[in-house]
Design a protein that fits this description.
Distance between the termini: 27 Å
Strand order of the largest sheet: 1-2
Order of helices and strands: HHHHEHHHE
Low-confidence stretches: none
Number of domains: 1
Helix content: 55-70%
Strand content: 5-15%
Oligomer: single chain
Mean pLDDT: 86
Length: 165
């Protein structure tokens, strides 16, 4: 029981649900950006070229040519690099967070509450691949239960996600 007149201040740490909403906002923004880029590329190349290539294929095996596989690998690399640059540059900027985090008043800091470097923000981004390998999203869910509300990638990169004052 709290003494009379005592007001419990909210934790300065951003918990799981706030971070999840920020992640959803960022995912929608990145997804929208990808759609715009794909439509622009398709407009320049033309949709007809894809249809003509598929119509001229003699067998299903021709679909898996080196050019098509190369296009998918290139697209995946561009997506990963673009997403990495977005997260690392935004989290190491003066805003200290992605657009989703900014919208919710969250900032990414080091363990002393200072702005992170691009290198540390990059490490945090790539550590998310390790976090994602843990079944049932437990590496992310642990942000709701650890003392400083850190997910696994935050612990690996020695970062905190805080509510802005």
């Amino acid at each position: 029981m709290q003494p009379y007149g005592f007001v419990a201040l909210p934790s300065p740490y951003a918990g799981f649900w706030l971070r999840l909403v920020a992640h959803i906002i960022d995912g929608l923004l990145i997804g929208f950006s990808i759609c715009v880029v794909v439509l622009i590329v398709a407009a320049f190349v033309g949709f007809g070229i894809f249809k003509d290539n598929l119509d001229n294929m003699d067998s299903p095996d021709a679909l898996f040519t080196a050019a098509i596989i190369g296009a998918f690998v290139t697209a995946a690399l561009v997506l990963i690099v673009g997403t990495w640059i977005y997260y690392a540059s935004m989290e190491s900027s003066i805003h200290q967070g992605t657009l989703g985090k900014i919208a919710l008043g969250l900032v990414v800091t080091d363990l002393q509450g200072r702005r992170v470097t691009f290198g540390r923000a990059s490490g945090r981004f790539f550590a998310k691949f390790i976090t994602g390998l843990i079944p049932l999203a437990l590496g992310y869910i642990m942000a709701g239960f650890t003392e400083k509300k850190q997910a696994l990638h935050d612990m690996i990169a020695s970062c905190l996600v805080l509510r802005k004052n």
